[in-house]
Amino acid sequence: FPVAPEAEEERKNIALVETYLQNFYNLQKDDQPHVRLKSVNPLPEKLKEMQEFFGLKVTGKPDLETLEMMKKPRCGVPDIGKYV
Amino acid sequence: FTEGNPKWKRNNLTYRIVNYTPLMRRADVDEAIQKALSVWSNVTPLTFQKIEDKMADIMISFVVRDHQDNSPFDGPNGQLAHAFQPGEAIGGDVHLDNEEYWTKDGRGYNLFIVIAHELGHSLGLSHSTDPGALMYPTYAYTDPKEFHLPQDDIDGIQAIYGQSNAPVQPTGPTTPQACDPSLTFDAVTTLRGEMMFFKGRYILRKHPQRIETELNFISLFWPKLPSGIQAAYENIERDEVLLFKEDKYWVLRGYDIAPGYPKSIYRLGFPKTVKRVNAAYSDENTGKTYFFVADRYWRYDENKRSMDHGYPRKILSDFGKIGRVDAAFQKDGYVYFFHGTTQFQFDPRGKRIVRQMKSNSWFDC
Question: Is residue B326 within 8 Å of B334, Cβ to Cβ?
Fold first, then answer.
């Protein structure tokens, strides 16, 4: 069955958030999902870091304002961490 | 600052434009890059010399997708450009995504603004959390002719390379803070139930149902509007907002600038001796609009579309001790006058001031 639009939208948003935090906030790519089950999910903390940087409400959740900021055209250099 | 505080060991740096975007004339690209370099050389001892071949300190190139630096571009929008911190080889280099719509004005992405930002990285700056700073990560258009390097960026780059050799040290604009007790306004108006406070290149936007005050560039909503709007008022009946700067005014219909503007303020009936309008508000009950210029005011009849006779009059004679006005707007039958950091609530029926507040009393401080 075609995925329900909301679920599709949500899936896209999660992908956007993960890619954004990997690109600009040093979120480690995580290609071993089963490991993730054991370890703490670093994404909310990274999201808070990003929200704090942009002066957004620090919720640790991908709320509308946060997603809007992530969709803005921007510089490719990370906001934190190394870029060499 | 970039981690590890990298900086160039020399002040005399070289740059080379490796290739050009096909979307702009070469001369316009050269000019945009020169202007972007001067943004930094104007406030530091740094100098930039253009070279045509050989390896330069700062190599500027337009590339697409994967371009062998482990940081592929992503096509139109998204990531616009990136640059590397000072160092050998790729150090200091600027890469611009050649799939972006580069321009020299407000369309697409303004090349000057983006390169000026990336050169900040080339010189050792990282991103700033100040939304008004050039080194803020997201793109925001400013008319290059009006661009002044913000104080936040000046402080950053001078912390790395020291001050400029100029006899007078350059300073830059700061970003308004809603709860700054010394905050003053250029103009204030209502706009379809919201309140818009104009300050420099910014608008502080207050929606009655939201606690937060939003800070945006004027250019975000209206790229064609200049910064430094001096007066504004809403004609609620016509669903229009008029915005004034020097001897020109614009009309917003709904949220868009009406075609054919700016027009001259003298069309409204001002004498040629009036060079600018300081403040304005419109009384939706009487259809009269009040314009404040220095210590006098005019009254305009919105139905007749002409100035009433018997004006100008002295502000002091009809508005009490207010004297001069920076900004004004009407809400719920009261008129709010702003002068410096003081705000007066004025009852137009009783012709008296009923309250005095701080200028930023509308923000949840």
Answer: no
